[in-house]
């Protein structure tokens, strides 16, 4: 899964490149063999890393032979070595070295070795490589080693055991998801791990900073935060996927490219049947999906379920965390969703919702609402969203409560909810928006509530004044408070807030100072006081020379 490596810089791998070069050169400089096997998922940058390290080793004077294994089994023995020799022959200019390369290639052309000649062949290949190196370090670079043929596997074991009498390094890349079951390379790597000269490196995806840097380099300009967040979330840091998504954005292409879609579909199709079902269940769910929830979704005996999960993880499609399972790339969910019929999609979401409802906990309400909505069950989605919002408010998570109340409003639109119930939802959604700082949204919801109520009460005026004050619009807030005083229903039972509390809320929340409260300094509501004025205003100083003092907002302001 290599991309055009000449078009983009190598990002986030400088330390890894330096470490691999050091691991290969240190032991070889003392006359020993060394090997680094780079293990990682498709597209993580193994081939690019091999190319970068090989280029650096050439500058040190090492002889680098680079070849790629093919997915043809044992049909072409020693194919990567033959390919590497032919490439090197076209590049080398030294007469003695060129002659040694041709002699080794001629030996391969003349011989048709049988099983009994394997040892002799390995010795002759080793001797030929020794003549090519001519005392210099020799580096074998082998890509896609998961497809290596039997003869090449034997050659690696022979050379890395120190039987070749040369300063040899091996640098190879292995596609991790391909090493399943009884793959022959697994046994070879197990044997090689015992050697002190061998190191197996698990190449991880890029981190967030590396992902942003790579995407920016491809697009050619800084990307907005929402774009980089989307690329990071969809790619999971996989460099190949980052490059594809960034190029699509740069070229103005919408949706998912056919290249990525087919790659991920092929990887899912390669799964065993039960693992296929597990990946579909996790893809539809809200991650992470707990093991107990997965067991209710995928009705398999426990041993078979664990085996299926192991297979999905081994194929680099799932990752396991302390909280459950999640997809390595969210793009898998997008790809699988496009392959489902609408009826299939609804059925999967209904199964998730029913499984969550079967064992209700406060943390499941939000996920239940999500699945009931996508299952086409707005009444149940509304009920779950209200429960999720109430739970978020109990934990003072007002941003989450605002989101859940908004989802409840959306669900209510599809249920034919009565006007009183919708007014109640709008009131709660507006209060949650206000508490989480979304004052403009709170005002919009309040206006919708006012439209449904019909007559504007003093309570609505006061709430609007409070939202405006916290939004920094104190002049409009003062006008709304005056309307509350003038409202017909402004009585001692349901009038404005008590003295001293409202001015602090209305003015100081926006940074406007309020006068200190002291004897004779009170805010007047005409229906709470016998004072004749019907306007609220700053209380007059007790003497012409006295001036009001100022103070900051008090904790009583809400």
Automatic annotation (TrEMBL):
Entry-linked SUPFAM superfamilies: P-loop containing nucleoside triphosphate hydrolases
Domain of life assignment: Bacteria
One Pfam family here: AAA_16
UniProt keyword list: ATP-binding, Nucleotide-binding
Domain spans labelled Orc1-like AAA ATPase: 9-169
InterPro entries found in the cross-reference section: AAA_16 (IPR041664), P-loop_NTPase (IPR027417)
GO molecular function: adenylate cyclase activity; ATP binding
Keyword Repeat tagged: no
Protein's name according to its UniProt entry: AAA ATPase domain-containing protein
Organism: Micromonospora pallida
